[in-house]
């Protein structure tokens, strides 16, 4: 039995399969996910687990090179969480529309669904390489 790190078997396996340039999403509990994109549902009830708790839990197992957020999250709490916990450069797109954040979710390998209820607590993360 594991004694540290990510204990959720589905999440641990998905993270282990990520390679350079692969993308995945950490989302609030309301983000729509297109058919065909795997959802790793960690949500228990509204607010549990929190978005920043999930970011903090995964950050040590990954090399990340960038992130994309909705423009609506700019200068708000979700952006602060990502900057403080992950320190990745961020770009911004509209939340909706054919080139918006929701549309980009279809490019993700998987979505980690949290119980977060803070609006726009969603980030598309792109994996880097450790060498």
From TrEMBL:
Protein source organism: Gardnerella swidsinskii
EC id: 5.4.99.62
A Gene Ontology BP annotation from the UniProt entry: D-ribose catabolic process
Gene Ontology MF, one: intramolecular lyase activity
Record keywords: Carbohydrate metabolism, Cytoplasm, Isomerase
Protein name in the entry: D-ribose pyranase
GO CC list: cytosol
Annotated Gene3D superfamilies: RbsD-like domain
A Pfam entry, by short name: RbsD_FucU
Catalysed reactions, semicolon-separated: beta-D-ribopyranose = beta-D-ribofuranose
């Amino acid at each position: 039995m594991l004694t540290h790190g990510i204990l959720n078997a589905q999440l641990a396996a998905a993270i282990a399969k990520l390679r350079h340039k692969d993308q995945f999403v950490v989302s609030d509990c309301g983000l729509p996910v297109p058919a065909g994109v795997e959802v790793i549902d960690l949500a228990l009830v509204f607010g549990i687990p929190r978005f920043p708790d999930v970011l903090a839990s995964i950050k040590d197992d990954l090399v990340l090179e960038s992130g994309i957020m909705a423009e609506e999250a700019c200068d708000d709490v979700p952006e602060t969480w990502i900057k403080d916990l992950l320190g990745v450069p961020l770009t911004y797109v509209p939340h909706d529309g054919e080139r918006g954040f929701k549309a980009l979710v279809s490019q993700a390998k998987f979505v980690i669904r949290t119980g977060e209820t803070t609006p726009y607590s969603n980030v598309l993360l792109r994996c880097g390489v450790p060498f």
